[in-house]
Write a structure and sequence with these properties.
With 175 residues, this protein is mainly beta. The chain has one domain. Helix content is 12%, strand content 49%. The protein contains one helix and ten strands. It has an eight-stranded antiparallel barrel with strand order 1-3-4-6-7-8-9-10.
């Protein structure tokens, strides 16, 4: 009888262990490898493409919240894992929350949604009121993009707030 109970407990525990492996909880140290954008040329009085020195590294902490059911943009129902996401710039001790563009916790979604493989799972979120800084993180290949929109579209012609894009690689540093 004891063997039956142990076997039953083991079988019941397996789905939860398998689900636990699917979650991406943990902290990732992200190193910027490249950067570019646009800068205002005072002499020519126009914006032009520019290469920037790679920005500082950061830590992205993902904490699993819940699995939610939703439809993708094609109307196909999927389950998505939602996360609390915090971004901490290197040298700082305080994390900045990163939210989905609808103001909710971000989720891991397949991009494009038709390719349901781990290497296509992407988390997108934005920080700072107005979402001028956006992050895109691929959990399959550990690549990220950081996009800063600046105030170019607002009409400013100065280099104090230049739009940029940077990218690099992340390494998982904790569970």
């Amino acid at each position: 009888m004891k063997k039956v109970v142990w076997c039953l407990l083991l079988v019941l525990a397996m789905p939860s262990m398998a689900l636990g492996l699917e979650k991406r909880d943990g902290a990732y140290y992200c190193t910027t490898k490249f950067g570019g954008g646009i800068a205002y040329d005072e002499t020519l009085k126009q914006w032009k493409g520019a290469t920037f020195k790679p920005g500082q590294s950061f830590v992205m902490k993902l904490t699993f919240r819940d699995t939610v059911k939703a439809q993708d943009r094609f109307g196909v129902a999927h389950e998505y894992d939602e996360y609390d996401v915090g971004i901490t710039d290197e040298g700082s001790s305080s994390a900045i929350p990163c939210l989905a563009f609808n103001g909710k916790p971000p989720s891991l979604t397949h991009d494009p949604p038709l390719f349901l493989r781990d290497e296509t799972k992407v988390l997108r979120c934005g920080v700072l009121g107005g979402y001028r800084t956006q992050y895109e993180f691929n959990v399959g290949n550990h690549r990220f993009l950081k996009i800063y929109t600046g105030q170019y579209a607002d009409g400013g012609d100065e280099n104090s707030d230049t739009p940029s894009i940077s990218g690099g690689l992340c390494t998982k540093i904790s569970q």
